[in-house]
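Lecture notes, unit on binding sites. The following record was shown on slide 14. It pairs a sequence with shikimate-3-phosphate.
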Amino acid sequence: MSSHGDPIPMIARKSAGLKGEAHVPGDKSISHRSLILGAMAVGETKVTGLLEGQDVLDTAKAMRAFGAEVEKRGNTWHVHGVGVGGFAEPGNVIDCGNSGTGVRLIMGAMATTPITATFTGDASLNSRPMARVTDPLALFGARAYGRKGGRLPMTIVGAEAAIPVRYATPVPSAQVKSAVLLAGLNAPGETVVIEREATRDHSERMLTGFGAQVRTEDSPEGRVITLVGQPELKPQTIIVPRDPSSAAFPVCAALITEGSDVLVPNIGLNPTRAGLFFTLQEMGADLTFENMREEGGEPVADLRAKFSPDLKGIEVPAERAASMIDEYPVLSVVAAFASGKTHMPGVKELRVKESDRIDAMATGLRLNGVEVDEGEDWWTVHGRGFGDVPGGATAQSHLDHRIAMSFMVMGLATEAPVRVDDGGPIATSFPIFERLMTTLGADLGREA
Ligand code: S3P
């Protein structure tokens, strides 16, 4: 089932060269944060380029429920914030749909205000672990009442008098880090998060942009991020860069589709997000960064990807995992078209995403004729080389947008078409995926 209706079966067939420009939507991580920080500032934040995928729309709705005004006029989203500590108690349950980022960041943002809110989501979100967020929120004085195993639906009772926290994240997660920093906004004194491996730093950058004092230092323990609590956040004008995690799909499709030459303009290349592109270059991909520049505090470039028939399997360094965590599904597809093995260690977190992504990809790849080995925190794809990947089977998307899009990319270069049982979840992060890919010349779409 898709998260918002009947399943949408999709099919992708072998395609001739993809050509043209791929204007992918705004960055999902930055879009969520623009709305949440906009809602916590005093005055009107303006956001253009916001991703209008279901995940972000659910966050917009949640911010309204907490008392912020959020509306779109023309191409601009206007967020009238209520200030740090100014959230009102929502009159109903907050439904975050499919979005782990949405629910975890919002829980953090409300946990140090003395209000109560109940959160739920779709079947995927309601099976994902929330203790990783509620454990540190409890240190601030918030209480959480959820289902067994710390699952949604869950009620958070915000702290009456929050105390600041020093917290070392036990898993590499920007969502956990961000939830703690957002909670720290309404605690007095300094809140400190320590992460062993650097994860995406959009929260730190944006908090600084909104006028909060945030310091990041590297220490033997890892990255130490210190936030000074109870700032007055100043409204901002935000231009959301395009999403590197969405760019990954047309880029990877171009690499494995004969005769392709695709330009993906204006892609956010924050080093905490760009691991996939370096990995692809190491595999021998004809991938270049053009026009490198900085926009809105984030590094940006235009990516050009060309058909690359001689890709080689590689060992992906475990320490790179955090910077490409959402890209392993589509990387595993590219790896199937490379010669030799691609080994991907240090990726336990893939098992608790919108689906168990190692299991979902390994099962679908095997059905489509690709050998995959896996362990709890690693997997290996045995590449068959270009022109020798059978395809012909239906993969299950498990309510996971990136699984659905990865198999659609795969089918563009397999011998027989590849199907997914449900492409509905694609709308959570990349609602124009089908139109954009077909405009480039990809033969994919809904099955009658
Ligand atoms: C995100 C962090 C990552 C990523 C997700 C977006 C964010 O999750 O997978 O798509 O915006 O902070 P984790 O923090 O669980 O690694």
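Take-home: Residues 29, 101, 173-175, 178, 200, 325-326, 349, 353 surround shikimate-3-phosphate (CB under 6 Å).
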